[in-house]
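At this stage, I put together one protein's amino acid sequence and its backbone structure tokens, which the following lines show:
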Amino acid sequence: MFNLTELKSLSDFIYNYGEFDNIRKSQKSADKIINDVSKLIFDSDKPIPEELKSEYGLKLKRALSICRKLKESGDTKLNESIEKAESSCKTLLQKLEGTQKPPFRFLFGCDLGLKDDENAVAFGVLEAINNDIPVITSAAITSQMAFMALTSSFTNAHFFREVNGNFVLIIPKKNDSEIIDLDALGLKGSKFKKIDNIFEKPIENITSTIDNFIGLFETESPCEKEMALVGHGTTGYIGGMKEKDYSRLLSVLDEPGMKCTYVDITSCHAGGETLLSHYVSTTKAGEKIKPSFHILVRAITSLPTTGKDHIKTIFSNFGAFRNENLDTVETMGLYQQKPFMDEQNYPLVRFPTKGATTPYGYRPIPMKQSTLTTLTYTKMRALELVGEKNITFDTLFVGLYPMVINSPIKIKKVSPILVSLIPGNAHHYLNDLELINCKLTDLIDITSTFFKDISSNKAFFIRKLKEGKTEYDNVLISFIRRKDITIRPYIATILRSYQMSGKTIYERVREGKVEQIDEKEYILEASQTLFLTIPKEEAVWLSSGGQESEQLFLEELNQGFVNENSHPLFKSDFKEDREVLLRAVQMDAQSVMNLPEELKTDKDFIKEAAKKNFEVLRYTLDEFQDVKDVVLAALDHHVRAYLFASEKLKLDKDILFKALKLKINVLEDRPGRFPQEGWKDRDLILEIVKIDGLALQFAPEHIRKDKEIVEQAIRQNPEAKKWGLI
């Protein structure tokens, strides 16, 4: 039997000082928490129902978080009451958790879809072991660690290997006599065998899948689990696996029997469009679900994470959201003093609950001395309701969620960075922007540096922009990824207009060069940018809590972004205009996937688009990769179009010989190059070496021993002699 006086003290505390964070308004709710917990915990004749232990533990942690926030307020008059209540919370929490099994907290170092070529995942595995965190990873990763001078870190751990598989389980030892019960951790003990050498090489001809990983766990876990996922990421991949596999993993972890309470993700580009996978997974029945656990992503927008040091912060903060019961913007402040590295790794959190103050989607964690200030739709509306005329930013990073911002924005920073926080492609409309201490070109330069590896298209349409005494109308700032032959992965552009001698002057600023353009060119570029930055419907919904839409954005843009004759400055039918769409796919071939359905299947349009940008062949419908004149048109642009032709057309003489004349290495034994079955066609090979004798260097042994072929190759190019075997 426990001391009910402790609960009375806590209840009185909440009652007397409940005004902090609006607790006073929920006084009855606070008292109910106390009473409910007391009934369950303090009646010795009643066992605590398993399904309620976590719920009431979280409620006590909420009370504890209130105490901590009050303690930070600096009111010394409250110290005695706060400390008494805080002590009560901790005591009761310890007693409650004493009846619960601790969670199985582990790191999954994943390379199912992307290899760990840079050893970043291996470094994460090492950090986990050094912090006494169990690890599940692949034999490919552990075997390579033997060559990284990291073997000393594994001298005090239990090693297990998946039976007839390549997954490895590492559990740090707490004492020499410790016996590991894998079943008690929610793992299937029968799936593992104990091993002595952690650096054994992978079993050949066995490919591990996400289903293999899921199969390592019991479907009815005896304890809760918290997982840190570390893996490489790029377009279509997150956490070292394909996006569809990640969605399946989330779906399984969300099943009640798995008892997952927290997932922590470190992966490049994880803060972009892949965030939508976190929110919506698909079950076998095709039903959409929303994970019921906290998810923390250590990447902001569509950018790569940087360095390895930030991996160390995973374990100092592991599970903090669950432990602190953080589910509101206010209580996120508890996380402020935790260390994080680099702005690209700025953490975003998604909350499983949907309370009145719980934010939608993913939100950056507010930290003390933060370089990032964010504007959410809710915050923007709140400022408007209280009559705030201006929204002022004084931090390096200005993060925007709303698509439409009518309130004037002032940016004080000398070198600010404008960041769109809508996942994936996105555009924003700002009615009025003033740069107090910097020029527009400075803004684009510093933002460009930050966005150098961005994998999504972003645009900001600004009706009026002021920099010092200079004013511009209808300014468009865009950051568009380059899916073409250029070296630069993206291109930053400014479109702007201003009045001079009664005329409207239009300018385009790109790569430091300013050029005057006519209104038609302005309209075309604005329209193509609008198309290239259309966000996904679910991305807009999650960023605004369902308050905004693309239609509302376009309506606002039509009213505000106009020329002197009050006509829209972009084409209203831009989604159907062939000229606009051809320009768009020339800039970003991947946008061919967003074309209207009738153009996706229009051979003439795809052929014309491929002639302007060969990568269209990569992203278009598979059927066009098997259409000869489309592939030939793409080869007119670049030899790399050969990589995306169908296997049949790669052996077509017109296509093959055209590619060979452009670059001989299309014959290399590499994915996407010359099909290996082609070397069986002796007549074809004779014709190939007549075009370029150096083709012999890529030929298999039986071709290099063929006297007629070798002699023909040498006649075409004497240097081919060193590749012959006659």
In short: The chain has four domains: 4-97, 104-359, 372-560, 618-723.
